[in-house]
Amino acid sequence: MDGLMRRGESYLQEQIPTLVGFGIKVLLSILVFYVGIRVIGWAVKILRRSMERMKVDQGVVQFACSLAKILMYLLLTFSIATRFGVTEASVAALIGSTGITLAMGLQGGLSNLAGGIMILLFKPFQVGDYIVQNGVVGCEGAVSRIDMCYTRLTTIDNKTIIIPNGTLSNSSITNVTEKEERQLDVKVGISYQSDIRQAKGILERLLQEETDIYRDKELAVFVDELGESAVVLGFRAWVPTDKYWKVKWRLNEKIKLSFDQEGVQIPYNQLDVHLHENIDG
Predict the structure, then answer these.
(1) How far apart are CA 138 and CA 119, in angstroms?
(2) CA–CA–CA angle 43, 45, 47 (5° rounding)
(3) Residue 224 has what pLDDT?
(4) Which residues sit opposite 133 in a β-bridge?
(5) What pLDDT sits at residue 66?
(6) CA angle, 206 as apex, 201 and 209 as ends, to 5°?
(7) CA–CA separation, 40 vs 68, rounded Å?
(8) CA-CA distance, 24 to 255, in Å (whole number)?
């Protein structure tokens, strides 16, 4: 028994340098990891500021910073692994096999990454644009971020919508604010008893009084449709994109007030029933 204990103590004494060396490696790795995180954050900030000074598109800046951060974290992990005696060939083989496994299991993620690259290359929209994903109810808002795999939208009531880039790149997108000018198309119905010429004159006057309408572009007031319960009038004008909704709301209010003041009726849907009495003679 004493011999076994002496052999155990001797073995431990022999392993003390190895254990101490391993502990030092662990401490150094923790220190390197901590310092590496700080350096990565500092490097990403420098990259972001440099690209912003070069006036690079904000979406490209966000995408590049996200990609650079991932690559630097992989490099930091690689350097720490080699400090524990892992050879470069072993790490490369591990990364290769892991990459194949992830590629097979995360095909959706890779399609989102590819979609993000397509968005940045062809630029169907940029950060700050207001977009609508056609065919998806409620999926619209101002683009706040374009990350590697997802795009974030902010709705008018300050909600956040996160859409996979793969979905966006394969969808029909309406970019509402890409152009500086937007056509305002307003329609209003009047009763068949009202004077069409009078109503058109009111619309023309309101258009001339509106200061945010472009005067050098076409202004049109027209009879759009002879409906079942109303004569539908319409007008078209060009306004600055950022003032579109304010102008539309303001004109709708002025149309209602002016029609009421001048006796032009805006009808509601109604059904007239005519009864014919048959008198047997």
Answers:
(1) 21
(2) 70
(3) 93
(4) 173
(5) 78
(6) 125
(7) 9
(8) 81
